[in-house]
Amino acid sequence: MDADCPFCRIVAGEVPAQILRQTEHVVAFRDINPQAPTHILLVPKEHLRSLEEIGEGHESLLVEMIQAAVQLARADGVDRTGWRLVANTGADAGQSVHHLHFHLLGGRRMAWPPG
Ligand code: AMP
Ligand code: ZN
Questions:
Q1: Distance (Å, rounded) from C-alpha 23 to C-alpha 8?
Q2: Ligand 1, atom 17: closest residue by C-alpha
Q3: Residue 51 DSSP class
Q4: Does residue 16 have its Cβ closer than 6 Å to ligand 1?
Q5: Residues 15, 49, 74, 113: what is their CA dihedral angle, to the nearest 10 degrees?
Q6: Which residues have CB under 8 Å from 58's CB, separation 6+?
Q7: What is the Å distance from ligand 1's center to 6 Cα?
Q8: Residue 111, SS3?
Q9: Residue 66 burial (CB < 10 Å; 0-12/13-18/19+)?
Q10: Phi, psi dihedral angles at 86 (to 5 degrees)
Q11: Which domains does the chain carry?
Q12: Which of 1, 4, 30, 77 is the 20 to 30 Å CA partner of 15?
């Protein structure tokens, strides 16, 4: 755990969040500043700074994160209308929290390419 990392602090229960699901290695909670009717963040409990730190041994973590996203999309009722899973990685992508997270977005029509 990184004591200065906001998502580590949510994982540790030190900062409140609207937690929707916890699995062995993953926590999902609602984004504090939602950009769509469904805007959920999925984070590994392990502090990884971004996708750049994914390596051998993280295969099952990625599957766990994606399976959790599919289940949460269903639970929020956006599975039939569609949803997007995004991991902003680095400055040009606009990554602002340096703890790996997937954004699960849905519930409105989204544009492509993203801004
Ligand atoms: P990114 O810009 O891809 O790094 O995304 C970071 C996301 O984390 C943003 O959408 C923020 O609104 C969200 N966020 C930051 N702090 C919190 C928090 N304490 N609880 C929930 N979401 C947060
Ligand atoms: Zn962290």
A1: 15
A2: 32
A3: G
A4: no
A5: 120
A6: 48
A7: 9
A8: coil
A9: middle
A10: -130, 135
A11: 6-106 (3.30.428.10)
A12: 77
**pLDDT, mean over the chain:** 97
Two tokens, residue 65: 């994160």
Helix/strand number for the chain, H first, E second: 2, 5
| pTM: predicted TM-score of the whole model, two decimal places | 0.98
| pLDDT range class, residue 36, cuts 50, 70, 90 | very high
Mean pLDDT of 79-96: 98
On the question of a cis peptide bond just before residue 44, with omega within 30 degrees of 0, the verdict is no
Q: CA 58, CA 73: separation in Å to the nearest integer? A: 23
The length of the chain is: 115
Residue 15 DSSP one-character state: S
Q: Looking only at Cα atoms, what is the longest distance across the chain?
A: 39
Residue with tokens 């569609």: 82
Is the distance from the beta carbon of residue 107 to the nearest atom of ligand 1 less than 6 Å?
A: no
For ligand 1, what atom is nearest to the CA of residue 31?
22
What is the pLDDT averaged over residues 77-87? 98
